[in-house]
Specification:
Elements: H1 2-33, E1 36-40, E2 45-47, E3 51-53, H2 57-69, E4 72-75, H3 86-99, E5 117-123, H4 131-137, E6 146-153, H5 161-168, E7 173-174, E8 178-181, H6 189-198
Parallel strand pairs: 1-4, 1-5, 5-6, 6-7, 6-8
Antiparallel strand pairs: 2-3
């Protein structure tokens, strides 16, 4: 009797460990399936309403998103606008938008095959994202991925950013976007947190 009870106890413990192992594998698998990345462009230097800043408004929001969700990052970098005062920059941005120019960015486009959720963010320049972002858009494939656009602005909200992302990636699932005033990003992290909670992060 004692031997049978001991065997039964060992079988029960073994089953418990097997069950726990299966659950752990499922959790890891789920985590791998929900990998996310933040793709963004951010302009440091002279910005409307916040003055001359070392860290761009959009980068601050991108960092919040990564901190909260664990998302990776790819920053779209160009030195074309370095050192420009606000007014000349807006004039150049307007010309680029009117001419549908595609300025070059530094480095290579990221490999996004392992991600299924993509946050895309930037400031609003003349009704949409800066043109350098559209240069990258032509170099990446987001078919089948879930996209969350976001913007920093001083009155434009999301402007045409969401619709332009939908045009760039017609085979992706583009969700409702999020916008925040540039002058708020340093003091209103809670707004980013609330948005991420609303979309399930």
């Amino acid at each position: 009797m004692k031997t049978n009870r001991f065997k039964t106890l060992l079988l029960g413990i073994s089953a418990l460990f097997v069950g726990t192992g299966c659950n752990s594998q499922e959790v890891k698998k789920h985590d791998n399936m929900s990998k996310s990345i933040v793709i963004f462009f951010s302009h440091a230097g002279e910005n409307y309403s916040v003055g001359n800043i070392k860290v761009g408004n959009t980068k601050i929001v991108a960092d919040y998103i990564s901190e909260i969700t664990g998302a990776g990052q790819f920053e779209i970098v160009t030195h074309k606008y370095d050192g420009m005062a606000y007014t000349p920059l807006t004039q150049l941005a307007q010309k680029e938008a009117n001419d549908k120019e595609l300025p070059a960015y530094e480095g290579k486009a990221p490999d996004l095959s392992e991600y299924d959720t993509v946050f895309i963010g930037g400031p609003v320049w003349w009704g949409t994202y800066p043109q350098v972002m559209f240069t990258l858009f032509k170099d990446i494939n987001l078919d089948g991925k879930t996209i969350y656009p976001f913007t920093t602005h001083e009155g434009s909200g999301l402007a045409n950013c969401v619709s332009d992302v939908k045009k760039a990636f017609p085979k992706a699932s583009v969700q409702n976007g999020f916008s925040i005033y540039g002058h708020e990003v340093r003091s209103e992290k809670a707004k980013v947190v609330n948005w991420l909670k609303q979309i399930g992060f």
